[in-house]
Amino acid sequence: EKASQLQTQRDSLSQKLQETELRNTELECQLLDLEQRLENRRLESESFRKSLRSLLELLDGKIFQLTELRDSLAKLMESDSS
Amino acid sequence: EKASQLQTQRDSLSQKLQETELRNTELECQLLDLEQRLENRRLESESFRKSLRSLLELLDGKIFQLTELRDSLAKLMESDSS
Amino acid sequence: EKASQLQTQRDSLSQKLQETELRNTELECQLLDLEQRLENRRLESESFRKSLRSLLELLDGKIFQLTELRDSLAKLMESDSS
Amino acid sequence: EKASQLQTQRDSLSQKLQETELRNTELECQLLDLEQRLENRRLESESFRKSLRSLLELLDGKIFQLTELRDSLAKLMESDSS
Fold this sequence. Notes:
Four copies of one chain form a homotetramer.
Chain A: H1 2-79
């Protein structure tokens, strides 16, 4: 009688363990997937930021060239006596 | 004798189940943490993008105003007969 | 006889004087016209220059605003940790 | 007696003619000077205008390049899905 009870307990535990291990595997898959998405997001962000930095440097150049043009105009107006 | 063997199996399963459930809880915590980080990343990205969009609109305005200034200069040079 | 010679000289001188005075009047008209054109040219130049100076100040403003925009973009990129 | 009167008239006319011719020469000098100043003014104006035209073309170029930069930023923001 006690053996039968122990066997029932063992089977129940064995099944619950299987279920828990399955859930474990699922969670590990989800974790891997999320880590992959975070890493992709990070790489995209880095590439986006690199492009932005290039645009910022281009903008710096344009502002510098506009300032040179402005100085040329100011000098032209000073030099002209007409 | 058989009861003693079943009891050993049951205890072993019970311990393994505990360990697996613990691992499960850890994985769920990690998942929650990653999901939170992804969501934060998404909100930061959205806010960053919104700021960028404002700067793009400002840039549009500046380019439009520079074009108006350029047209004023062109008209001034055409109108002037000296 | 001498009186007749003197009269001829007087008449010739009188005619030459008339011609020279006419030429004088023409030259004075041309001078007045040129002086007027120079003055008009000067006023046009002054007005043109005033307009140019306004455009130069506008350009200064635009360059300043582009620099502010550039600084906002740079700060945005620094603050963003994503 | 009449000869003496005629001689006085002739001398008076001769002196007036000299004065008028001198005034003529002065006026012609002034005219030449003014014409030279107008021509110098015209050449300066032309050179000034040529320089302004170059600056206008430079400004066109800068506005075009800022517009390209703006389009690059807009495309970057559209392409980015993060």
